[in-house]
Specification:
The protein is α+β, with helices and mostly antiparallel strands. The protein has two domains: 207 residues, no CATH class; 180 residues, Glucose Permease (Domain IIA), CATH 2.70.70.10. Helix content is 59%, strand content 16%. It has six helices and twelve strands. Strands 1, 4, 5, 6, 7, 8, 9, 10, 11 and 12 form a ten-stranded antiparallel sheet that branches. Strand 2 and strand 3 form a beta hairpin. Helix 1 packs antiparallel against helix 2 and helix 2 packs antiparallel against helix 4. The radius of gyration is 35 Å and the shape is elongated. The two termini are 58 Å apart.
């Protein structure tokens, strides 16, 4: 094998190795995401198991099952990525097997040439006599050194062939494992498709079993939207009042408030969730309803459904700025964190007072209980003074 061929092979092996490492990292990330999605499904099912077996319709139940369908689709999409990723890994391993096979064949040819040369060049010589027949000591030493080098070359080639065969077998084993993983993932995908079908059927059954026409359910949803709009208007009004009151108190932030603002901003993406084991059923901003066409949902924060009477936590150090009741929507709490404010709505059993300093993960109250179901939806908002922000981008990935 000439120098350039060796160099080309090194480049190819480096490329294949780098690709496998990158695919390996991607595989770990995809598996992590899939596990998180499956945990979210478990949480939704756990919350749904708490609902009472009554004959009433529940928007909350529909939202939960709709969310379950969304997450199930995400799991299937994740599996598609994983299957595609494994397919690419199989292609790379197959290419590497071909290259290894070529290299082993080349090594075997080299070894055959050495053996052939050894046989025909030295078959008529007695090796000891070959050395002793030298005309002088230097010639004898050179003959001895030649034979030693010749022998070492043969041994090194044998070891190299054995080593390459070992590497070859490892690659074949990896290929078999990847093919096995692909079969498992394809099977898992089929099961998830069946689960998705079941979830969709359950959603249809839920609507049909409660003997409520879609138009009536839409009216119920519109009433809920109007109610939500009144709640958010009330919260916005209080946020504006709070911002004005702060401005009157001090035109310039104190060093303590500046530090608290900075610390809060530094924790973007890693803030704890305000409730354990909840699932987001409505995201920030304007988006279409997952079930009913033509209905847009506008949300100043996020809605998290959890079991009723669940502890609600402060997401960061701060001061309880406002505690107020909203007619028909229980209590709401606003906590100030320097220039940032967090809002927690639909609480009962408040455990903090106005002006109280709270720490991260301090219990500030408990979620209310729906009269018809043992589940509750907590509304959570995040503001930087008068600018509302998407809480999801600030909270830790894991809930």
């Amino acid at each position: 094998m000439n120098y350039f061929k060796k160099y080309d092979l090194c480049i190819i092996f480096l490329y294949l190795f780098t690709s496998l490492v990158l695919f390996g990292q991607k595989k770990v990330e995809l598996e992590k995401i899939r596990k998180e999605k499956l945990q979210e499904i478990d949480k939704i099912e756990n919350i749904l198991s708490e609902t009472k077996l009554d004959k009433s319709s529940s928007i909350q139940k529909i939202d939960l099952i709709s969310k379950k369908i969304v997450v199930r689709n995400e799991i299937i999409e994740n599996l598609n990525f994983s299957i595609d990723d494994i397919g690419k890994r199989i292609e790379i391993l197959s290419e590497e097997i071909l290259l290894k096979n070529d290299e082993i064949n080349n090594l075997k040819l080299q070894y055959a040439k050495i053996v052939y040369s050894s046989y025909y060049k030295l078959k008529n010589y007695n090796l000891i006599m070959y050395i002793l027949s030298a005309t002088n000591f230097n010639q004898a030493y050179r003959r001895f050194y030649y034979l030693k080098q010749y022998s070492n070359k043969r041994k090194n080639l044998i070891y190299k062939i054995i080593s390459e065969i070992g590497e070859y077998e490892k690659i074949i084993s990896s290929l078999r494992n990847e093919k096995g993983n692909k079969v498992v993932l394809l099977s898992t995908k089929e099961k998830e498709k069946e689960n998705l079908k079941t979830d969709k059927n359950n959603l249809n059954i839920l609507i049909e079993n409660y003997n409520i026409k879609e138009s009536n359910l839409k009216n119920e949803l519109k009433e809920l939207q109007e109610f939500t709009k009144r709640i958010e208007s009330e919260i916005e009004k209080i946020i504006r009042e709070e911002a004005l009151a702060k401005k009157k108190r001090n035109k310039k932030n104190s060093s303590e408030e500046i530090l608290l603002t900075k610390n809060f901003a530094d924790n973007k993406g890693i803030l704890p969730w305000p409730v354990n084991d909840g699932t987001v059923v409505s995201s920030f901003g304007e988006h279409p309803h997952p079930v009913f066409k033509g209905i847009l949902i506008k949300n100043n924060g996020i809605d998290i459904t959890a079991k009723c009477n669940t502890a609600i936590f402060s997401v960061f150090n701060g001061v309880v700025s406002k505690i107020f009741a909203i007619k028909g929507a229980n209590f709401a709490i606003i906590i100030r964190h320097g220039d940032f404010l967090t809002v927690y709505q639909n609480l009962q059993k408040i455990t903090v007072k106005m002006g109280e300093n709270v720490t991260t993960r301090k219990i500030i109250g408990y979620s209310s209980c729906d009269n018809l179901n043992n589940i509750s939806t907590i509304h959570f908002e995040l503001w930087q003074e008068l600018n509302k922000m998407d809480p999801i981008s600030w909270l830790n990935e894991e809930n």
